[in-house]
Amino acid sequence: MTHSPKNSKAADIAILSIFIAIMIVIQLLSKIIYSIWPFPIQPTLVHIPVIIGSITLGWKKGAWLGFIMGFISFLNSTLTPIPTSFLFSPFAPHGNLWSLVVAFVPRILIGILPFFIYQLSKNRLGAGLGGFVGSATNTVLVLSAAFLFFHDQLNMSFKALIASIIATNSIAEAIAATILSASLVPVLIKLKK
After folding, report:
1. Which single residue of 48, 120, 145, 170 has CA 20 to 30 Å from 103?
2. CATH for 149
3. How far apart are CA 55 and CA 127, in angstroms?
4. What is the pTM of this model?
5. How many structural domains compose the chain?
6. Does residue 28 lie in a domain region?
């Protein structure tokens, strides 16, 4: 049975919509959970569907999912600002146009790089490595861009930047992304065939 391009496009839009819905649910649940969460570690989990989408759907759709993640971050920082919202929204106090670079560019790259990492070794290990690289891309690029463009507002030394990159949140995020990618990608790729 052959699929027409029209059916294929509709299926792609449906799958992308499911990934976007998962991202929105994760964002909303995270906000609720972290408001009562008693621990200082509050890992970001929205990047995980972007990573898994990148590997299973391809880098172009992954880039779109990354753009949506950046948009969620921008919207969140604009509508419910916290002290660091200026990093992601030019409309937050102390924000500027560089905020859009911090909000969008690293997130779009999260949707691109895991796909290519997975191509090196198309198995569970490659999926886990793609998850790790996607998570590290988020952490390293967001913090580096924040350091570069908002050095004065953050009053952060390079040593503090490196400490932030290897802080507990980023380790928890990388572990979660690695495990979930290695677990889910092989299943999703089988379902896709």
Report:
1. 120
2. 1.10.1760.20
3. 7
4. 0.87
5. 1
6. no
